[in-house]
Amino acid sequence: MSQQQPSDEEARERLIDLAAQFYDQFEDGEIPRMEVPTRSKSNIVFDEDSGVWVYGDRTSSRTANSVRGARKLLKGVYTIDFLAQQLDEDRSSTLRELYYLSESWDEEAAQFSDQSESDKLVEDLEIVSGVKREDFHMRPEESGATLMGPLKLREQTRRGERVIHCQEDVGEGGYQIPNNPDTIEFLDTDADFILAVETGGMRDRLVENGFDDEHNALVVHLKGQPARATRRITKRLHDELGLPVTVFTDGDPWSYRIFGSVAYGSIKSAHLSEYLATPEAQFIGIRPEDIVEYDLPTDALSDSDQNALESELDDPRFQSEFWKEQIELQLDIGKKSEQQALASHGLDFVTETYLPERLTEMGVL
């Protein structure tokens, strides 16, 4: 189990300490307040040393010197009380349930107006307490991302420990990644690398063709923009088992950002970049040069696609010569293509030709 994971009691104590700070401020005759990093795009910086997105130095104060501010702190206290009780009872809940549950709170001013408000408060509590929401026993509504490959692990569940081999003990759907991957202990692996795949269709093609068997690959289904649990287990596999991480997506600007979130983190979770991001991850494709070289079926770039690509030319995550060349080429040809467009060369082309050649070129195989 990851040593970075606090116990339920430690997580609960940090939450109670936050509430105690408000009490102490009251007792000292001060207006209660809570300082958090300013969560705007202008306060997100790309840390060149670590290669991930982090918060800058600007902070915002959640203070009770206005009715609006007092309500935010009141909601925070009620949420802390709920989370502390949840930890005490060894229960869990979803972000969506927290929003609805607030409607039962006896103080109407503490109730949330929409889920985005409760989601942001949970993120504030993560930042201020230094405890991840997973350690508060909070989870998203659904994830469903999976892993398939030669990996044996021990998973902590409510029904006790389970030892699972992620090929031999699972069906074609693979091993479903739990909400908190830090409850997993890696026991043994024959894997040589990780292949993180954007789409379910391509993930299924790789498994059906036995790519994980033939090349000792751990195939991780990103399921579009990857959930925190998916990025966390990918990082742990890289850091703890020394496995190279490769990312295989569609060939469009939104998919490049999926790669960016795996490698460098995202603006939304900048406070967790060092916990979630894997800067050593490498991008396999689909690359704009693949569209030309393999004469892939394409769609025309939309205006929003073009604007996104132009924005990426100024994005710190895409400043290498490789990315500049690829993005400029895509803007020039005005086309985008999907992973499954490789099937225009046959169902086995991706596993027999495209991926082996690309992985060999990258020094992974």
Structure description:
- This protein is an alpha/beta fold and 365 residues long.
- The chain folds into two domains: 8-139, Arc Repressor Mutant, subunit A, CATH 1.10.10.10; 146-361, Dna Topoisomerase Vi A Subunit, Chain: A, domain 2.
- Helices cover 41% and strands 19% of the residues.
- The longest helix has 22 residues, at 67-88.
- The protein is globular and about 70 Å long.
- It starts with 7 loop residues before the first helix and ends with a helix.
Q: Describe the oligomeric state of these chains in a short phrase.
A: single chain
Number of domains: 2
- Global mean pLDDT: 87
Structural category = alpha/beta
Number of separate helices: 13
What separation lies between the terminal Cα atoms? 30 Å
Give the name of the CATH architecture of the largest domain: 3-Layer(aba) Sandwich
Low-confidence stretches: none
Q: Could you describe the largest sheet, including whether it forms a barrel?
A: 6 strands, mixed
Provide the succession of SSEs: HEEEEHEHHEEEEEEEHHEHEHHEHEHHEH
Helix content: 40-55%
Question: Which strand order does the major sheet show?
Answer: 10-7-13-12-14-15
Strand content: 15-25%
- What is the radius of gyration? 23 Å
Secondary structure: number of strands: 17
Protein name: Type 2 DNA topoisomerase 6 subunit A
Domain Spo11/DNA topoisomerase VI subunit A N-terminal: 71-137
GO molecular function: ATP binding; DNA binding; DNA topoisomerase type II (double strand cut, ATP-hydrolyzing) activity; magnesium ion binding
Organism: Halospeciosus flavus
